[in-house]
Design goal:
Helix content of chain A: 25-40%
Shape of chain A: elongated
Largest sheet of chain A: 3 strands, antiparallel
Distance between the termini of chain A: 44 Å
Structural class of chain A: alpha+beta
CATH topology of the largest domain in chain A: GMP Synthetase, Chain A, domain 3
Oligomer: homodimer
Radius of gyration of chain A: 17 Å
Chain lengths: 140, 140
């Protein structure tokens, strides 16, 4: 079971505490009565998607003895126009940096995460169409 | 458009930065090579759900001139047993504290969030069955 508690801290500020004991602040835009002191709740879905797939890809590339030096993940999403404005489309791009990386290994790691392992992707894809891509940047 | 970037910080640590400019650390359990220095990516989905619905409920109760003094939200979720272990069931409980709160107003605020406004709920419900409940604690 995964658990979390969220507590109102006044105005639009909320403190989220995860079952593993970590806390963070969420807040709204000033247009909605917030102070922009923390992330918007919907942004957490995108960050979770990036973290989940990133962990998979690093693990897989390390198992494949790839000399990975960096990984950046860009996530962009569209919402429905009308309330409740669910996520409808997500694009996720992986920029993998390393030394003499095998393109085949990177491609396979991305595919394994997206198709087999990433729980956040497997959850969000029931609402949003998720498109993934990758770039390899070999360093000296 | 909602955007986020996630950057690998070594081992299983990832830094998520939201499009609104806020950052947080994600990490894995030591069993998976992590240091437990931050939240698990899947926990973010639950925290986002709590924050999203919490903002709705506070806004609605304030518009209804209710004297709300506190709001706590407990979120528990089940995953599928097999990979990719998507979310299959979520329970969310709202504990609303206030002075002379109208049960009808609280009930309606929870319903409006769950059925009409909360974008995170509207996204996750395509993967998981979401059950909500509430408790009212009137203070002197």
């Amino acid at each position: 079971m995964i658990t979390a508690k969220v507590k109102w801290a006044g105005d639009m500020q909320f403190i989220g505490q995860s079952g593993t004991g970590h806390a963070m602040v969420m807040d709204a835009n000033p247009d909605f009565g917030g102070y922009d002191s923390g992330m918007r709740p919907m942004e957490l879905l995108l960050i979770g998607l990036g973290g989940c797939s990133g962990m998979d890809i690093v693990s897989i590339l390390k198992k494949k003895k790839q000399d990975i030096r960096g990984l950046e993940i860009k996530v962009n999403a569209q919402q429905a126009e009308k309330y409740p404005k669910r996520l409808t489309e997500i694009s996720i791009e992986f920029i993998v940096k390393g030394k003499s990386l095998s393109e085949e290994a990177v491609k396979r790691a991305v595919e394994l995460s997206m198709e087999k392992y990433c729980s956040v992707k497997a959850t969000l894809e029931h609402s949003a169409k998720i498109i993934h891509s990758y770039k390899i940047e070999n360093v000296d």
